Amino acid sequence: MNFLSEKQYPFEHRKWNAHEVSYYSDEYIVRALMVSPNADDIKNINIYLRGGKGQVGRVRLGRLLQFMRDDSIVVGPYYRGSNGSEGMDELAGADIEDVVALIKMFRHHYPDARINLIAFSRGGLQAMNTLRHEKVHSLLMLNAVSSIYQMYEERVDLRGMMRRMVGHPKKDPESYDAREAFLHDIHLPKMLIIHGSIDRLVDIENARILIDYLQYKNHPYDYFEFEGERHALTPPSVKRMKNLFWRNVEE
């Protein structure tokens, strides 16, 4: 891989390795955490799109390992402006290139591998807007934001941050429209939507908005509402989620 740097991450496993890597996204050097197997036969590139901002919701090794197999590489970009990456977080603005650049690198190096996006929380905005630029094999929307307008509506506590980063949806509609993937052409992949029924951080309405869009487009999808689950899934639901993810990738 043509990474600018690779630094061993503290992780011991008989068959897998973890590295912090850096690469160019536009003119910025951004960082990511990657887990890869010792084997050469790579069938899947799983790109985990984190939620939160800055240290909140940062990419963690444990989350990447949930999507790891011997035939797969799992990588989670930190996004520009976070955890030592240059530039500024733009909440699904120009920072979408942080994801697009990774896809292009992996596609060049592993042309036969499936590219799968895993979007958690705010990472849903990153994923949906990435689909404007790149075709991927599958997308898991896990308790994920699908609409920036819905995010502003439901997260009163985040409105100040969103006004600083994006603007006000009524005063700066062009900035919100630019980040509302439904208003643009999207390369729709195999879609799996999972949402906790009592998620208080990303309302289940995000899943319903996405489903309405997919039905309008006559695009197939699988949807599972995890009854009684909040934003962070319990261990039994994590196991169920992983099984559904791999089934969606391989069917």
Can you walk through the features of this model?
The protein is of the alpha/beta class and 251 residues long. It has one domain: Alpha/Beta hydrolase fold, catalytic domain (Rossmann fold, 3-Layer(aba) Sandwich). 29% of the residues lie in helices and 25% in strands. The protein is built from 8 helices and 9 strands. The protein has helices at 61-65, 97-109, 123-130, 148-154, 159-165, 173-177, 205-216, 235-250, and strands at residues 5-8, 16-25, 28-37, 44-49, 72-77, 114-121, 138-144, 190-196, 222-226. A 9-stranded mixed beta sheet has the order 1-2-3-5-4-6-7-8-9, sandwiched between helices. Strand 8, helix 7 (205-216) and strand 9 form a beta-alpha-beta unit. The longest helix has 16 residues, at 235-250. The two termini are 28 Å apart. The model has no long low-confidence stretch (mean pLDDT 95).
Number of helices: 8
Instruction: Please tally the β strands and state the result.
Output: 9
What is the third-level CATH name, the topology? Rossmann fold
Mean pLDDT, all residues? 95
Biggest sheet descriptor: 9 strands, mixed
CATH superfamily: Alpha/Beta hydrolase fold, catalytic domain
> What is the level-2 CATH architecture name?
3-Layer(aba) Sandwich
Arrangement of strands in the largest sheet: 1-2-3-5-4-6-7-8-9
End-to-end separation: 28 Å
Portion of residues within helices: 25-40%
GO biological process, one term: proteolysis
GO molecular function: serine-type peptidase activity
Protein name: Prolyl oligopeptidase family protein
InterPro entries: AB_hydrolase_fold, Peptidase_S9_cat
